[in-house]
Amino acid sequence: MTKRVTILGATGSVGSSTLDLIERAPESFEVVALTANRDVDKLAAAAIRTRARLAVVADESCLAALRDALAGSGVEARAGAEAVCEAARAGVDWTMAAIVGTAGLKPVMAALEAGGTVALANKEALVSAGEVMMAVARAHATTLLPVDSEHNAVFQCLDRTAPKGVRKIILTASGGPFRNTPLEAMRAITPAQAVAHPNWSMGAKISIDSATMMNKGLELIEAFHLFPVDSEQLDILVHAQSVVHSMVEYVDGSVLAQLGTPDMRTPIAYALAWPERMPTPCERLDLAKVGRLDFEAADPVRFPALTLARDALAAGGARPAILNAANEVAVAAFLAGRVAFLEIAAIVADTLARYDPAAPDSLDAVLAIDAEARAYAAERVKDCVL
Ligand code: NAD
Ligand code: MG
């Protein structure tokens, strides 16, 4: 039976890996809709190749170019944030949520309301609106499958017959490109140095998050919402080789881990085929070649984002949404050359210190907090001189 699929964020790193797998198994998948922000050429080419029904750009100024690129192909062209949500609402069997940032929040909520299976890469949505999102998934009996490699690993290792048997979830972290960089040298880090991840090839925003280790902080909050554990049961362990993708420790002392080469197509394929498995062209893990696996504790002094995220998770309420919004603003400012690397965590800390609204109880409340936190963070960015 073919699965009808939609990819939100089809032109990005995760979106492209998803398309790669789907195009290798055309008999198994029918592409309904593909969306992107403004990368018209890449979106149109993918829509034509996969014979998608619909292609959507979020940026309305790109509609004419998209129409031109799709002329004569039979693929419908649409534009605007609402059109992205409508594409997410199309009622397919499987939706990949791979938009970056809280820009993906409304579309992912639309997909969760439409039902079926939602494969979640867009961690920022869950960090900002975890309670609201999980409630909608439950209410609509939507299956939410984690694509983030750590959470996918945990999902694979969880013994669902004995949820009370879990003692700890251990998220592994590569430590990013500056795992061993002294604090002094971190002051002068450039965007080009920071986006160059040692193990994974990813979009710019998550690459910077890996470099500050905010990515692991966001992943703590993501794991809290996805799995039946308290925040104190979540641990982080630095593992530079990115071979062990995460672990679950049980009360009897058993520790289950999922291993593989660092290629996002493995967790994406798991979510695409679930509850079955499908083959991928990923390089096979050769442990004899890897030779040894190293683990070490994370350094909260050089990576203050870890403590900020842990505190936000422990406090709950609006704190995770503020953490995420301020981080998105700070990372964009760093990538634009407007703030220094070490300012990213400082901007997040100051935004959290200045803004403390009540806990959000709806999607609109989350979006209002997100917007307000961005305004505070943007003010703080203006104070930075490079
Ligand atoms: P990316 O920057 O490569 O791609 C982002 C996609 O979102 C693109 O298709 C872009 O057009 C679209 N987009 C951007 N802004 C948008 C907007 N305002 N409205 C609609 N669409 C918009 O990012 P990525 O690396 O593929 O990451 C996507 C998500 O997956 C992120 O949340 C990231 O944290 C998560 N993730 C990525 C990886 C990875 O290996 N890249 C691994 C784990 C999790
Ligand atoms: Mg991850």
TrEMBL record:
One of its GO terms (biological process) is isopentenyl diphosphate biosynthetic process, methylerythritol 4-phosphate pathway involved in terpenoid biosynthetic process. Residues 144-227 form the 1-deoxy-D-xylulose 5-phosphate reductoisomerase C-terminal domain. Its cofactor is Mg(2+); Mn(2+). SUPFAM superfamilies: 1-deoxy-D-xylulose-5-phosphate reductoisomerase, C-terminal domain (SSF69055), Glyceraldehyde-3-phosphate dehydrogenase-like, C-terminal domain (SSF55347), NAD(P)-binding Rossmann-fold domains (SSF51735). 1-deoxy-D-xylulose 5-phosphate binds at residues 123, 149-150, 174, 197, 210, 215-216, 219. It comes from the Bacteria. Belongs to the DXR family. This is 1-deoxy-D-xylulose 5-phosphate reductoisomerase. It comes from Sphingomonas gei. The gene is dxr.
